[in-house]
Amino acid sequence: MAVTLKPLYPTIQEAKERRIELLRYLRLEGGRRLIAAALLLALMSGLNLAQTGRLATQGHAVAQLQRQQTALLRERSNLQLRLARAQSLADIERRAIRLNLRPMKPEQARYIMIDTVNAREPFTQDDLVLNP
What we know:
By secondary structure, the protein is mainly α. The chain has one domain (about 10-130). The protein is about 65% helix and about 5% strand. The chain has helices at about 10-25, 30-85, 90-100; strands spanning about 110-115, 130. The chain has a two-stranded antiparallel sheet with strand order 1-2. The longest helix is centred in the middle third of the chain and has 58 residues, at about 30-85. The chain is elongated and about 130 Å long.
């Protein structure tokens, strides 16, 4: 069995030769330039496609939010209309008549007089004056 004895660390001259060979290997020539250009073009196309897809997704989300905003604005308008109708005096009067309610007569009014000087003290039944 033969054993080759070679130093583990190359000499400076061998290191220079290996570096020159490596640079020669990495040097781009005709075919290698074409492959590098094709890879660069593929990378740029992939980035462009990814951006286009993301933009389309965002456009769809914006359109959906605009539809939702339109629906909410329509609902708000309907609620404001219902509120205006509910607060109209004519509508309140119609509902009161439908519920058999009548206007209050003056003798039905009850007023409570509260003495503001003694307002901080607790009230008793004698302090309250009904219908003075």
